[in-house]
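Replying to the earlier thread about multi-chain prediction with a worked example.

Input:
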Amino acid sequence: MSTPTPGPQVPPGGSPGAPGSSGAPAPSSTTSPDAPGRAAAWLSDARQSTWLVLVLAVLSAFVLGGLLIAVTDQATRDASGYFFARPQDALSAGWTAATDAYGAMLRGAVFDPQARSTTAAFRPITETLVVASPLIAAGLAVALAFRAGLFNIGAQGQLIVGAMLAGLVGFRLDLPLVVHLPLAVLAGVVGGALWGGIVGLLRARTGAHEVIVTIMLNYVAVYLLAYALTTPGFQREGSSNPISPPVADSAAFPLLLGPSFRLHLGFLLVLVAAALVWWLLERSTVGFSWRAVGANPAAARTAGMSVSWAFVGVMLASGALAGLAGAVQLLGTERSLSGGIAGQIGFDAITVALLGRSKPLGVVLAGLLFGALRAGGVLMQASTSTPIDIVLVVQSVIVLLIAAPPLVRTVFRLQPRRRAAATTTRSAAA
Amino acid sequence: MTTPTTAPVPASGGPAGAPAAGDGPAAPADRLSPRTAITYAVLTALALVLFALNAPDGSSRFRLSGGNDAVQLPELPLPGAAFGWLVVLVCLGVTLWVERERRAGRRAGVWAPAVFAAAWLAGFLVWVVAGQTISLVGLLAGGLVLSVPIVLGALGGVVSERAGVVNIAIEGQLLAGAFGAAVVASATGSAYAGLVAAPLAGAAVGLLLALFAIRYVVNQIIVGVVLNVLVIGLTNYLFTTLLSGNPSLNSPPGLLPVAVPLLSDIPLLGPVLFNQSIIVYITYALVAVVHVALFRTRWGLRVRAVGEHPKAADTVGIDVNRTRFINVVLSGALAGLGGAMLTLGVGLAFGEEMSAGKGYIALAAMIFGRYTPIGALVAALLFGVATNLQDILASIATPVPSQFLLMAPYLATVFAVAGLVGRVRAPAADGEPYVKQ
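Result:
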């Protein structure tokens, strides 16, 4: 990495509140070697969405979700049979269904006053943190790549490979805690970094588009894990099910609040990672050159930065964070490796990074919100008839709306704040 | 999806059927990359080690006709070791020829990769069956059924990406199509009503993609990824709340196979190609229609112009964003029809996330087929047959773990986009929004 002597075109991006200083729209439609500029252009668009737009987007998504809950509710549908005779029946049934579902979600995510004991009443908020931990780590992975102009759709695969290696160290070695846990986490980080590094290397050497490669490597990782779980190295002794033995106690994250809560040290580790990513992006030389490459690859190249090495470095770091998510999920929450270890985390991470506007603090907050949705969704599904899949709907609507600030402004009749936003609207209308 | 091209070359015209010869990156002809020849050499070495040196004992036997076929063919026994060596010889010959042509500064013809791939795959099949018996008709016919959603998804991808819009939402469009087809067919009791509903459901997802990606200029990849999540969430939610407690909404009548008179009596090919559900015949027609439309009509020329150089297209009076909008919606309709195959075509009820990544395989098939309808068809058939082979092999002992066969399409695509098996060039403006200055 050469010294980053910023050329005049290199924007000092990243300072909050001064987003579009580059003002660079997507590179003109004829150039393609500098395709990453697109992601950066999108990011600067997304940053134009004000906090108001953000809040409205989240609220609208919940309202839409509530409508969906209301109209699919059995009582509402029964009452709507005579809607024109007594509309208030259907409306009140729908209102009850939606508020019940969201009430249960809130109880499952924050605090449950109906619980039998004080411990149980406080458990939901810790569960939110448990679920949020890997989401934040994987969200950081996606966000870091975004900032350098790369779409890492492959957090899922990197997470799986990270969890595989972390597990291998965790349940095959026998070491004291001080060595074993760090070693297992390191293995996870290395696994993720390798899987991500392949993508960066292919991108840098052959120009293979990272979106395609990461999507394909996600599936390769899924089948690799499925295969590994049939081999003696990974499979639990004496079991024919595709599940590994539990990780040794010395490799598991210690619980923070005693045995009645699942909250573990991994959560703090993830917060440290977020701080590190902030430092890396905003304060370090390497991070500066990565952001410069993301903002304008041509200018970065002119300024003497190696775009190829930036791609490799970014994907290594991004994969490492996703691998950390895998290690946190395995060593802290799941304890045994199975085919479903990654769940939806790698895909949720994309929405987390988008909602968090690819900034470390934003990612932490977005991860907490989506962690709360997930944790609350479990109680909601158990205590009302609303399936947890509503969380996916709310999540994706939030991201669609924050990605299109003009849409939110149109719906709520807000004035466009910036010239760029106005241009977008005009050109789209043209 | 832009691989680095030096300049916006005009659309790679011509119906390039099979993947074309290993053309390196846009390099001058006298400096052809040795990458393709090296890949051939590695694959030949692999063939030598696996198919020849580790050949199964005895012969692998292939049944060429089913019990009810008009013309009964005898079983085809292929001796493992001898066939393995034959394959190695053919592969070696092609490799040497490609290298000779490269040294002479020429590119080998289209036949080279076609012959190589055919020989290698035949060798692989004989090796993997390992001296046992499988039904070749069953393998191919089942593979065709599995590949139809992939073909239609990839065809949708071609229509959209040729116009310059990346369609990652194929997965969601397949799923929406499967859902719409199952629900409408069950509610109306008519499979044909479902067949109409499926493309409409897919087109609805395409409309959302077009709305956000073109009207609001949101990044196409992001919209695609998020739409997939949205459709999974919606269909799962509706499945649990509406369908699971109400079986009458999710028991669609199937579209059972219809034998085409005469054609279905052709030995081997007849039962494979012409004794299928009507969706399969529609697929044949659509592939042909889209191929001709894209490369032989004024509409196709305009679409490709919009995908390669929107500014130029705009200058000559083509409405770029309108063309893109229509193509994206059309793309969704094609993929949605593919979804109908998952439910109606095989007579299954809708199940949660039943598209199971087929949309992403379709994306892979589209790239592997070099953004052409016929190429996508060939790639999708290959992927479908590979999946079916894995299902068939699950019941007999074979030297390859099933997970690696399932992995193969994805790995092949990584190799393809990395240029190890010939360079794939995406439309120059693929993924670039067009904002009129």
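Chain A touches chain B through 63 residues (CB under 8 Å).

Feel free to reuse this layout for your own posts.
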